[in-house]
Amino acid sequence: MSFGIHFAFKVLTLGLGQSHDGVLEPLKRLVASARVGWFRATLLSDVFCAALPGFGWLEGFLADPSHKATAEGFLYTASMARRSLSCYGVRSLFLNGLLAQSKGYRRFADPKFLTGLDEVEYSSRYDGQVMKLDPSIIRMLSLEPGATTVTAYGSSGFNATAKISTTLEDGTRKHFFMKTAQGNDAAIMFRGEHASLNAIHRAVPSLCPASLANGVSDDGTAYLVTDFLDMLPHWLAGDSGHHSGMSLAAKLAELHTTPAPIPEGHSKPMFGFPVTTCCGDTAQPNDYRESWADFYAQNRLLAILEKCERKNGKNVEFRSLVKRIVSAVVPCLIGDDHLNDGKGVVPVVIHGDLWSGNKGKVRIGGNEAIEAVVFDPSAVYGHNEYELGIMNMFGGFGKNFYDEYHRACPKTSPIDEYDDRIKLYEL
């Protein structure tokens, strides 16, 4: 992929300024012809864009380390920068050391939880706010408040995360994973994740946790409760002993060869998704469309461009170049009358944000069996290779994975344009 395009979209999405001049020339070269020779120069833009926002957060963090926003933002950005480097096999002693020194401040990003007798409550250490486990969650999960505890578990850049533990009538312990956050944006994010998890779970049950409860409490706190995943380090989990007998590559191939359900109100398969989903904190419109090329052009490329322009201002020449990509490159590479000898593609459920940080080896719900799973999805009914573009951009999936995947889910025809399609889907 052209460094210019990769860098330009990241700069616009991150809101790093309004100067687009440095990316216009690479974009002009890209759209000079519909058949593109793509350049591989993603490392510099990945690392630069992952690290740059951290400088602002670092300044605030050092000035007032007790402030929630700067503590969360800085720790999250440092983690992302380290992950971006590690995707390319680069070890950063600076970032590792910085995160190690900063662990003491994680208390400002993670709530500490308290348990009451009649209701489950937790208090957030960084702002002192006391919140209750919503009664709807208690009802949905059939919990007994007096036998239930909630404790801080893990960390996230966008929300508070917790482990709900309860004792069932037969004396066995059962666990759930919960996310909470404030505001309408969080409600949209969790609604999308709830629908995404269950869409994947219905197609391949062992590929992801089921989402069990989702909603907004009376005080405006959005929540999402799923099966609990007991995360295991890769060296401990190994590659054998999967209860389902399937590797992650095999499960993903099954997901991508299972036709997506026909949406309610429609008589045939459609590209899109029932609700808005979020990739990171970016909301993505998923209005249904009959054409995959139209969906990718309108609901992804142009939709993101418009969000960026609202945030950073317009650049006429840049918009013109992006629209030429939509009008020339998209139809050439993924047009419905071009793929699979004019037959087009069948929509399948796509995870939508699959990278090394959103997969793992786990025990689900306290079971002893180990499974390879994915989580934090941003699903859509789309072309399976769209998934591979995201996976390829961030790394973490090796040759053996792709070889096994493609044995069960072959490349779309024309095969000789596969690499170009993957690069297009990285935008």
Task: Give a description of the structure.
By secondary structure, this protein is an alpha+beta fold. It is 42% helix and 17% strand. The protein is built from 14 helices and 15 strands. The protein has helices at 3-14, 21-30, 42-63, 68-87, 93-102, 135-140, 184-203, 234-237, 248-256, 292-312, 316-334, 384-394, 399-408, 418-424, and strands at 112-115, 120-123, 130-132, 148-152, 160-167, 173-182, 211-216, 221-227, 229-232, 277-279, 282-284, 348-350, 359-364, 370-374, 380-382. The strands form five sheets. It has a five-stranded antiparallel β-sheet. The model is unreliable at 1-23 and 33-131 (pLDDT under 50).
Distance between the termini: 9 Å
Helix content: 40-55%
Instruction: Please state the average pLDDT score.
Output: 75
Write down the secondary-structure element order: HHHHHEEEHEEEHEEEHHEEHHEEEEHHH
What structural class do the secondary elements suggest? Answer: alpha+beta
